Amino acid sequence: MPLVLDLERAYDAARADPGFAAQMDWFLEHYVGRPSPLYFAERMTAHLGGAKIYFKRDELNHTGAHKINNCLGQILLALRMGKTRIIAETGAGQHGVATATIAARFGLPCIVYMGATDMERQQPNVFRMKLLGAEVRPVTSGSATLKDAMNEALRDWVTNVRDTFYCIGTVAGPHPYPMLVRDFQSVIGHETRAQIMKAEGRLPDALVACIGGGSNAIGLFHPFLDEDRVAMFGVEAAGKGLETQEHAASLTKGRPGVLHGNRTYLLQDEDGQITEAHSISAGLDYPGVGPEHAWLHDQKRVTYVSASDDEALAAFQLCARIEGIIPALEPAHALAHVMRMAPALPKDHVIVMNMCGRGDKDIFTVAKALGASL
Amino acid sequence: MTRISARFEALGAEGKAAFIAFVMAGDPDAETALRILKGLPGAGADIIELGMPFTDPMADGPAIQAAGLRALKHGACMKRTLDLVRAFREGDGETPLVLMGYYNPIYAYGVPAFLRDAKEAGVDGLIIVDLPPEEDEELCRPARTAGLDFIRLATPTTDDARLPAVLQGLSGFLYYVSITGITGAASFSQGDVEASVTRLKRATDLPVAVGFGIKSPEQAAAVARFADAVVVGSALVSEIAGALETGGKGDAVRAVLNLAQALGEGVHGTRKEPR
Question: Is residue B140 part of a domain?
Answer without folding.
Answer: yes
